[in-house]
Design a protein that fits this description.
This protein is an alpha/beta fold. 47% of the residues lie in helices and 17% in strands. The protein has one domain: Alpha-Beta Complex (Spore Coat Polysaccharide Biosynthesis Protein SpsA, Chain A), CATH 3.90.550. Helix 7 packs parallel to helix 8. It is globular, with a radius of gyration of 17 Å. The two termini are 30 Å apart.
């Protein structure tokens, strides 16, 4: 097993250095995917790469969305011979103190995706938490299962080859719809999903690229496509659900 980190980056020049500094202490390769960031972020990224020898960058010439950045990072991870990558956001919202636990959990369950589910403090916007509840309800519908505790938290350890095997043949939303869609499709492919809590903090001066209307529309469209995919898989999923309840 060879683990590493995957950090999608878009215009978080003020936080990328401290985030990388925190994960660099684990002595593992770090893949940063610059998703068409502005000049200030590119300068911060160059400084970060110069300071941490384990960090490398993938550069997308124009902004293509978080999903596209994660997909590019997973492909680079395969090129580097990594078997598992922990995805952590560049904005510093994820509790990096959970890194050790998640990496250890992945080592114990290398066949699984180790997924975070959020524990919010008082900084979380009500509209974000409400929208998350809707997405999680849809995930239960399109999987016929309550196993997917949360589908939007980006703090996850992906098994690289299994994720690419599911990802490459399919059309995915390249933006905010990617996080829920990849988990649903991994579940459909019988890849185990294991969930653990991670604290989430929204700083007052933090930069969020989540667009309330546009991204909720994209996520809704993703679940619409997934619903029809569930219909095609209805009986195998139903049988799996019944078998799991019996066991």
């Amino acid at each position: 097993m060879k683990q590493g980190f995957l950090i999608p980056l878009y215009n978080h020049g003020s936080t990328i250095y401290p985030v990388v500094s925190t994960v660099a202490s684990h002595g593992l390769p770090i893949i940063i995917v610059d998703d068409g960031s502005d000049d200030a972020t590119k300068q911060a990224l160059e400084k970060t790469l110069g300071a941490f020898s384990l960090a490398t960058a993938v550069t997308l010439k124009e902004n293509r969305g978080k999903g596209a950045a994660v997909m590019a990072g997973l492909r680079r991870a395969r090129e580097q011979g990594l078997s598992h990558v922990l995805q952590i956001d560049a904005d510093g919202q994820h509790d990096a103190g959970r890194v050790d636990f998640f990496l250890a959990a992945s080592a114990q369950r290398p066949e699984a995706v180790i997924c975070g589910y959020p524990q919010y403090d008082g900084s979380a916007p009500a509209l974000r938490t409400g929208g998350r509840a809707v997405s999680n309800a849809w995930a239960r519908i399109v999987t016929l299962s309550a196993e997917l505790v949360d589908v939007l938290c980006g703090f996850r350890v992906y098994p690289v080859e299994k994720t690419l095997a599911v990802m490459d043949p399919c059309f995915y939303d390249r933006r905010m719809g990617f996080d829920p869609e990849i988990l649903v499709r991994l579940y459909w492919a019988a890849v185990p999903l294991v969930f653990y809590p991670v604290k989430i903090h929204y700083p007052q001066d933090g930069i969020s690229h989540f667009r309330l209307v546009q991204d909720n529309v994209r996520i809704s469209w993703s679940f619409t496509r997934l619903f029809f995919g569930m219909v095609l898989r209805f009986f195998p999923l139903l049988f799996r659900h019944i078998r799991n309840r019996v066991e």
